[in-house]
Amino acid sequence: MTDPQKSSKTMNIMLWIAQVLLAAFFIMGAVMKFMPIEKISAKMPWTGQVPALVVRILGVIDLLGALGLIFPLLLHIKPKLTPWAAIGIILMMICAIVFHVSRGEESVIGVNLFCIVLAGFVAWGRFGKIRSK
Fold first, then answer.
1. 81 in Cβ contact with 69 (< 8 Å)
2. Are 120 and 90 spatial neighbours (Cβ–Cβ below 8 Å)?
């Protein structure tokens, strides 16, 4: 038989790993979006083809998503916001997929799909923890 407390602890660790990975990814994305447009457009061509303000706003959204994944739960201040941040990331990644597909950039949506899976896991796990309390 499995110990429910041990499996709950394991699940919590797996959720934290997913949250930290996602947050790190989105923080890196936010930092990139605040670099000079000429520099980042070499890696992400779309950034040179939309207004710079759009790129910066997306950087702020990335940063807020990353912070929302970590700080509410870590600081025990409104921890119910963490799964909602994950839902927000899922919605943002769906928008990114639509954007990339509309531009014929289907080859880059793998990262978006991976983020959807991780964020879905976080939302499912953290909403489950909220319901079990």
1. no
2. yes
How far is Cα 56 from Cα 54, in angstroms, rounded to an integer? 5
Distances from the Cα of 16 to the Cαs of 3, 40, 102, 106, in angstroms?
Answer: 20, 30, 34, 30
Q: Going by C-beta distance under 8 Å and a sequence separation of 6 or more, which residues neighbour residue 49? A: 41
In the prediction, which pLDDT does 57 show? 97
Instruction: Check residue 80 and report its DSSP letter.
Output: T
Q: What is the rounded distance in angstroms from the CA atom of residue 12 to the CA atom of residue 59? A: 28
Nearest to 18 by CA among 130, 127, 124, 121: 121
Residue with tokens 């940063």: 63
Q: Cα separation of 107 and 97, whole Å?
A: 10
57, two tokens: 């706003």
User: Which amino acid does the sequence have at 65?
Assistant: G
pLDDT tens by residue, 21-46: 999 999 999 999 999 999 999 888 89
Looking at the whole model, is its pTM more than 0.85?
yes
